[in-house]
What we know:
0% of the residues lie in helices and 35% in strands. It is mainly beta and 79 residues long. The protein has a six-stranded antiparallel beta sheet, with no helix packed on it. Residues 18, 20, 28, 30, 39, 41-42, 44 line the site of zinc ion (ZN).
Amino acid sequence: MPGVLLPTVREDHTVWSCPWPIDENIICSASNQMTETTCRNCGKVRWVGAEAISNTGMIIGELTGHDPVTTEEIWTYYY
Ligand SMILES: [Zn+2]
């Protein structure tokens, strides 16, 4: 089933997981609140590939891009 493309952050989406590598083989994967736009662990900015995590701890989607006009984040939810 294709993800649902929404231009806004869903209400139950409260956490994001950092997608940046911290060395050759390890992804940072730190959990950050959606109110934070940089990672508390590695300090990098929230970016494409970040996982969307719900208020119940489930992975519900991912950051798939940015609107070319508004630069708003585009989160794709799996369900
Ligand atoms: Zn990080």
